[in-house]
Here is the input.
Amino acid sequence: NHVALDIAGALPPVDLPVKIALYRVLQEALSNGYRHAGVDHHEVRVRARDGWVELEVVDHGRGFDPPPLEGPGATERQEHIGLRGMRERVHLVGGQLQVLSRPGHGTRVIVKAPAREAT
Here is the structure.
């Protein structure tokens, strides 16, 4: 499995729970791409923007129709346990999660998590 990592510039400090959430989301996104999309190449981008750390994991696999992760129609289905886990981890640290995909067009997982304020 090949992962192309792009870290754009210096990253601000983040609290340990944010680091763990980012790590676990990255782990799940890479695992999902390998297991479900049949890819062995991912692109991972990390950057700071406007008080947030942004993590983006991209594959060019088979893609899928992602279920809603927010709002009253948010998925609670058993087969979406990995996506739900990512959602919950990100929400616990005050972050945001997007999963963008469609059949035949790969998948993009985007996480925004708060950076620690400068003291």
The chain has a mean pLDDT of 88. The first helix runs from residue 16 to 36. Residues 69 and 75 are 6 Å apart (CA to CA).
